[in-house]
Amino acid sequence: MTQQTAQPTPLSPTAARLWAKARGEWRQRQFDAAERSLIQLLALAPGNADAIRMLGMAAQRRSEHVQAIRCFREVLPNWPEDSDLRLGLGIALYEQGEIDEAMMHLRRACELAPRSGAAWFNLGEALWRQAQTEEAIAVLQKALELAPSHVLAKLSLAKAQASLGQIDAAIAGFRDVLRLDPGNAEGWFGLSNLNTVRFDVADRTQLQSALARDGLSPRHCELLGFTLAKAMEDQGDYVQAFDVFALANASRRKRVKWDAVGERRRVDAILRMFEQDMPAPLDPTLGQETIFIVSIPRSGSSLVEQILASHPQVEGANEIKDMSLVIDAETHRRRSAFPLWAPDASAGEWQRLGQEYLARTAHWRRRKPRFTDKSLVTWYLVGAALAMLPAARVVIVRRDPVETCLACYRQCFTEQAGFTCDLDEMADYCIDFLRLTRFWLDKYPDRVLDLPYETLVAEPEPSIRRLLDFCELPFDPACLTFHQTSRTVLSTPSAAQVRQPIRQDTARSLRYGDKLDRLRQRLRDAGVAVD
Questions:
Q1: pLDDT value for 375
Q2: How confident is residue 6, by pLDDT bands cut at 50, 70 and 90?
Q3: Residue 153 and residue 117 in contact, taking contact as beta carbons nearer than 8 Å
Q4: How many CB atoms are located within 10 Å of the residue 306 CB?
Q5: Which of 43, 69, 85, 246: CA 20 to 30 A from 435?
Q6: Does 394 have pLDDT greater than 90?
Q7: CA atoms of 284 and 305, how far apart (whole Å)
Q8: Up-side HSE of residue 190: CA atoms within 13 Å toward CB?
């Protein structure tokens, strides 16, 4: 690391003692105490660059990216050639959605510290998440040349290979991690998440041993639990598999935040606000580049995106956050919760928001004129999206509700998907999704398409032709052979599946028998048709 030395103002004896105390606390991993000492220090020595930098590091540990960015930017002029500072700033900017600036800092960190495996790893991870997968693979391989035992880089490389359809290489990568660390939860889960690996009795025994170790974090227990349950499924032991899924989900439910009642109120509020007519758009052609794919997880949205992204005019952007970020920024600006401000927005304001979204997503249209956005929260935002982008198209992908709920329950998602941890809450989420998307279909029949997954797999060519007609795309035979399309699929559970021809044998619920009777009854009581 090359570092330009700053010339700080000398600290008073009291401030110097606080700085020494903060550094000692940090070394001892007493991060909260260190932060308190830093705040006291800055009260005595405002603008002290060392303290501000460490405050940024503390904020980054808590995923408070805005605070981290503020601190790192303030001190960057003191150390413009500090690779670690560039790296921290790049990571925080990326997590906040400031992609272009983030990539600039991450690349600069690699230039400043070309022998740093950590710098190359973080650049490779960001490239993969931006679907620049071929470069990501090369960068991650560079990280591993510099740091052969960098387990996170091995895991990221395997995930990147999977997302590009290099499934055999991905399997080998995850197995390599497990040879180095037989109990590695991320390695086991990576294999499981490919949905193509069948675990044998030896794998099941190793997983049980890994789960029995002391000192596992709840997250690692959960990853191993989900993987063990799938190994039990592979051995035909569905009853015991369901019990293990239940244990792993119960653990997740203690850690993740999910307010089912609050979510129901939010859907009710969206329905009330968007029953009102939105102002006529100033530019009815705005947004014609955009195709939104709306679904519950594990319902076929990755398949639909792969079909559309096989068309020469369409880029598949995966699950991007830009619509949520635009709406969140407007909510902050107005100091009023969404959707309460929606009826007060003028045509000009909706157009401004649409232009902001298109500016944020412009890089997805560098190669092709149109793109897909399949963020899993867009189903809440369809009304806002169509007010912002009146020429956009929305494709609602829905699957059999019991199969959908079971598939989500079997998948270990990130903390943002708290509704998947409990089948009752999963059913409520599905019920809310169905009633709100029915509303969008009724309100915007010319701009919203209903695409049942079961119809797509039973009648692929007519369904694909209908989909392309709705999106105003000329038919292209590549959409029928979508599994041959080379592109990045960031949803690891779907990455291998979309490289296969359409299968009609994906239903699992009957294997679980009466374990799902309560789920079926809850859906029926809400008026949802259940076979």
A1: 93
A2: very low
A3: yes
A4: 22
A5: 246
A6: yes
A7: 25
A8: 30
